[in-house]
User: Fold Iron-containing alcohol dehydrogenase from Candidatus Aphodosoma intestinipullorum.
Amino acid sequence: MYNFEFQNPTKLIFGKGTIARIKDEIPAGTKLMLTFGGGSVKKNGVYEQVIDALKGYDVVEFWGIEPNPKVETLRKAIELGKRENVDFILAVGGGSTLDGTKLIACGIKYDGDAWELVLDNSLVKSGVQFASVMTMPATGSEMNSGAVISNLATKEKFAFYSYYPKFSILDPEVTYSIPEYQVSCGIADTFVHVMEQYLTTTGINSLMDRWAEGLLMNLIDIAPGIAEDHKNYDLMSQYMLSATMGLNGFIAMGVPQDWATHMIGHELTALHGVTHGESLAIVLPATMTVLSEQKKLKILQYGERVWGITEGSESERITKAIEKTEQFFRLLGLKTRLHELNIGEETIAEIERRFNERGVKLGECKNVTGTVARAILECAL
Amino acid sequence: MYNFEFQNPTKLIFGKGTIARIKDEIPAGTKLMLTFGGGSVKKNGVYEQVIDALKGYDVVEFWGIEPNPKVETLRKAIELGKRENVDFILAVGGGSTLDGTKLIACGIKYDGDAWELVLDNSLVKSGVQFASVMTMPATGSEMNSGAVISNLATKEKFAFYSYYPKFSILDPEVTYSIPEYQVSCGIADTFVHVMEQYLTTTGINSLMDRWAEGLLMNLIDIAPGIAEDHKNYDLMSQYMLSATMGLNGFIAMGVPQDWATHMIGHELTALHGVTHGESLAIVLPATMTVLSEQKKLKILQYGERVWGITEGSESERITKAIEKTEQFFRLLGLKTRLHELNIGEETIAEIERRFNERGVKLGECKNVTGTVARAILECAL
Assistant:
C-alpha cells in the first residue's frame, strides 16, 4: 500500500425530507448566496423547499450555471458575491452547479480573474464557505474538493481543487424528476470514477479493490431496476449514495489512480459538448482495449470479481470483460462509439494535437500521450 | 435505506515513517500530555520516534492505561491534566490507550467525577483536543468518537461517546512487534465490528452490504499470510487499515446495527478479563446460531458472498456459514468456546441476572434479553 493522507470533513445529510435541515446547519444572520443551474429546481419543488427552509435569512440568488460550468458565467456570480458581501454559498443543483460554486467561493476572495485560479490552483488561499443541496448525483462534488471548469473562449476544460462543502444534503426523492438520459449519464460517470481509481496495478491495496468492486457491482445491480422505475426510493438512494462514495476519497486510500479516460472524455465535451457521462462510456472501453496489456492483471480480476468471468484464455476473458463494460453502458441507453455522434478523424487529430502541444502524459503510467490518445479514440470510432 | 447523517473529521496519516509527521499537526507552543499503556512502546521504538518528533514541545507523560481502561486509572490522568493545564493529548498506544484518552480529554473539562460522563454521555459538553499514534489496530478508535470504559469497583464496562481524534497516525511497521495472539484478537475484533453492522435485516443498503462483505473477505484473505509472517508490510497495512475502516462509520450509513455480541462479550471481559477479541470469537457464532431464524436471509447472503456457500438446503447453508465463521476464529488461534476458559453456568447466571436487572433488550430487534443472552452463552459452552 502507498502512504496516504485522508481527511474528508463534509457532513452528509442523507434521506427523505432532509432539505428542511439547511437551517440547522447555517448560522442565523449569515449573508447567503444561492447558486442554481437552469431552473429545473423550480419545477421539481426543490427551490420551494429551500426557500421555505431559509425564511429569515438574507439571501441573494444567482441563476444560470450551465452544465460544464463556464468561467464566463461564474465571473458574474463572483461579481455579485463580492458586491453583496456574501459569507456563505449554498449550491442547489447538480454537480455542475456545485463545481461552479467552488470556483465562485474562491473567486470572491481573490483579487484577480477567476480563470487564473483554475490555471494555477496554488493561487487559492481562501474561500467563502459553501454547501450543497445535491439534485443530480454523478460527480461526487458534494463530498470532495474538486471541480471541473470550462472556458468558452479558449474551448478548454480543466480540473480545479479548492475546499470541501461544509455539508451536503442528499434527498433521493429529488432525483425522481431527472430525465432518464441524465440518470444514465450519472451512473456511467460514477462507474468510470470508480474505474479510474481501480483499474491500475494489482496488489497495491486489496481492501480498496474490494470496495471499488463493491461499488461497481452495486451499480450493475441497480441499473436495470432504475431503468424500469425512476421513482423507486431504495434504488435511487443507491444511485445517489454510490455517486458520492465513488469520488469522495473513500476508495482512493493508498492506491495509484489513472484518469486518462476522463482527460480524453473532457476533450470530447470541450470540442463537441458531449455529455460527460456519455463521453466516458465512449472512451473507457477503448482505453481498456488499447492498454489491455498494461492493465491485464487488473482487467482479469475485474472480469472475475465484478462480472463472474472465469472461463476461457486470459485474452478471451479480457475481451469479455471489456465487452461487458461496453454492454453495460449500452444497456443504460448510452452511445459508446464516436461515429454515433458523427465524431471522426478531424476531432481525433485535434485532440492529438492538443495533447502533444501540452506535452501531456496521462494515466497511471504516464504513457497516454497524444499518440496513445489517438489510438484510444480510433478504437472508439 | 434509512435516513442518516455522516461526518468524520479525523485526518488519517497512513504509512511508513509517518510518526515524524506529528509536529506538522500540533501547533507550536501547545502544552501536551502524552498518554501510554504499559510500556511496549519503549521496546518497539515508537516512544523514541514520538519524543524525537516532539522536541521543543512542553510535554507531560502519563503511563499505565491498561487494556479495558479503568476509570480508576483515568481519574489520575485527569488530575494530572487539570494540574498541568494541558491543551492537547496525544495517545500513543492501542485502542485501550486511546479509549481512555477520550474520557481523559472530557474529564479535564468536567468538574464532577469522570464516571458520571460514562453513565450519562449527555453531560459531555467539551473536551481537550486529542490525537493518536495507533500501535495496535483493532477498535477503530483512531477514527471514531467511541470508547469503552470499565469500572473496577463495580465490575462494569460501558460504551462512551465523545469527540473524534484530530488526527491519527498509522504506521504499519509499528505492528510488527505485536504478539501473535493480540494480532489475532485484533483481526477477530475487526471482523465482529463489521458483522455487528452487517448481519441485520437484508435489503436496507446494498452498497453498505458490499463494503462490509469486502472488509470481511479481505480479513479472511490476509489472515493466513499474517499468521506466517508478522512483518509483511502489505498484509499488516491491510490489517491496520481494515481495523480503522471497520468502525469509523463508513459501513454504517443508513443501516440498522446489532451489537448484541459485543454487549455479551463485554460481560465476559468484565467478569473474567477475557481479551475483547476472543470474547467476540466465542459469542458471535453462538449469537448467529440462536438468532439464525431472525437473521436467516442475511446469513445466507453472507455465506454465499463471503464464503462461496451455494449448495445445500437453506438450513445446511446457514449451519455451514456459522461453522466457517467459528473455523476462521480457530484458524486465528483463538478459543471459541466458554469451557476452554473454564467459564460455565455460574457466569451465565450472573450475566442473565445483570441483563434482567438492567432490563436490557439488545440487538437489532431489541429482543436479546437476559433469557436470550443465556441461550447464546449456553450455545457457546
User: Anything to note?
Assistant: The mean pLDDT of chain B is 96. The interface with chain A takes residues 1-18, 172, 203, 205-207, 210-211, 213-215, 217-218, 221-222, 234, 237-238, 241-242, 245, 250, 253-254 of chain B (CB under 8 Å). The two ends of chain B are 37 Å apart (CA to CA).
